[in-house]
Amino acid sequence: MNVFTGQLADPSATTLLRFATAGSVDDGKSTLVGRLLYDSKSVLTDQLEAVEAASRNRGQDAPDLALLTDGLRAEREQGITIDVAYRYFTTARRRFILADTPGHVQYTRNMVTGASTAELAVVLVDARNGVVDQTRRHAAVAALLRVPHVVLAVNKMDLVDYAEPVFADIAREFTAYARRLGVSEITAIPISALVGDNVVEPSAHMDWYGGPTVLEHLETVPVDDHDLAGRHARFPVQYVIRPQTAAHPDYRGYAGQIAAGAFRVGEQVTVMPSGRTSRISGIDLLGKPVDEAWTPQSVTLLLDDDIDISRGDLLVPSGDAPATTRDVEATVCHVADRPLAVGQRVLLKHTTRTVNAVVREIPSRLTLDGLSPHPEPGQLVANDIGRVRIRTAEPLALDGYADCRRTGSFLLIDPADGTTLSAGMAGAAFAAATTPPARVGAVRSEDPDAG
Description:
The chain has 451 residues and is of the alpha+beta class. 16% of the residues lie in helices and 33% in strands. Strands 7, 8, 9, 11, 12, 13, 15 and 16 form an eight-stranded antiparallel β-sheet that branches. The protein has a six-stranded mixed β-sheet with strand order 2-3-1-4-5-6, sandwiched between helices. The protein is globular.
């Protein structure tokens, strides 16, 4: 059976990979991250000493590497992950930002935060338990967020005697499910995070496996397919700069971070949602003028004309402007403890723009087992994934999430207290079901269905 379906590339030492880990409770996410940091020599001496001391206080002889990421006091006491733990580390081949997300159903919503900017998601499965409901839920969130690469890490292989059939069955089941969700690239790796098998160093216990270790895959997975610099150019205005000083009496600049694409001096742009047009007369980057800027740089754009532009407006190339709408159809992951109900008034935050809105319909809620829609649920509760139709008080220049993650996403907020209710992705829920990508690495097997 072919289970390594990733595509190797020659990475640049300056490339950055953002990735998230997810999995059910006690599948070993934090231990995997701790092992990854420890074996790649990315742990500072004082951090390791603190972990050793905490482990001794819990009666453990060896350091518990999970404590490198479980930073909250409640997490260390309970031995679970509650908050999203971010870690930054570098190898000789690539820089990394990782988000260790919680496994408990109660904290599934935190995965939305951790994976929203990720280019790769590592979904862990306990080899003894196989694919469970929480595994399916994490796969669905990764698919909804259009995470380009998914790694299935079948953990605790040491507890099933490193049996190849156990790994192959789990990989086959997960891959079939994820492909139905439209996940295009799935790489399965058998590991033991506790003892380090196939995390950084190849395992001596699984000679039947012919693919990369977790770190090798992280270092070589291509990320240029998610490069926003080549996509529709989008610039949400965050702040209007008008010093009105003797040195800059007429300066009017529009500051913000480029959400996608690139902008050039001389380019004609359209202000959304008003539709007014002008031309870029200058671009200031770190206090210096430049001819061109691209995502994710934070810049100030200057225009030829003094037109009405304020925070929340979107500057786009005049030939590539998104349509404006007040009727938003999207998929949302509900993250609040209070339900989201039909008729509820909310605030919709899209990039730097916040408008009043009302939930007009909740046509369906996703059933994870069969991936079938449960029609007209009436409301969504915490961790539900569902379709919504929303009417906004003002028009929005909203891209489809499949076209641009930054300008195709939004938040629904409770206007009474500012609580985030749901994270939304505009447009179609999932990508079309995919076919297996070309084989690059393989696990030696006599299975006639291999490949």
